Every structure is written in C-alpha cells, then in structure tokens.
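Lecture 7 notes: from sequence to structure.
We start with the chain below.
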Amino acid sequence: NYQMMGAVPTPESTLKKTLEIGVSAGLNFIYAGNVYGWGNDTHCPRCEKLLIRRKVFDILENKVRNGACSFCGETIAGVFHKE
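Predicted structure tokens for the same chain:
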C-alpha cells in the first residue's frame, strides 16, 4: 500500500492458493508475506514442526540451531545470526 495508492490488494484467497501451489510443487520455504496471522512462519520440511514463529516483522520464536532443526536435525537453508 505504501506506493501503490489506489491499487487493489491481492485477495487473501489468492495468496493462500499460491502458497498451496508452491508447497505442492515441492518448495520448502514459501511465505505469503505482508499478511497478518498466517503464511509467515517457517516449518521443518522433514518433521513439519514450527521452527520460526513470526508476527508482522518480529521473530517471536526461533528453534533453528546451528543451521538445523532442533527437533530432527534437518539442515535448514538460510543465514542465521546469533544474538
């Protein structure tokens, strides 16, 4: 909305459908983005447990340890900084 004054936002139903298509195509880390309440968390592609829980732009919970799922040890793609 910041620079798209007057443009109609993409309906959430369309975003959900594209998320489902991406997952069914085998994408492990796919996000809706700019949607509040769903589509922004990271789950392990092997055990499907919640690894990173987000709210808007904040990380509320991070279960990735040394680049891997803390539950099953699956390598998680990304760059992770220690705080």
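Points to note: The longest strand covers residues 50-55. The chain has a mean pLDDT of 89.
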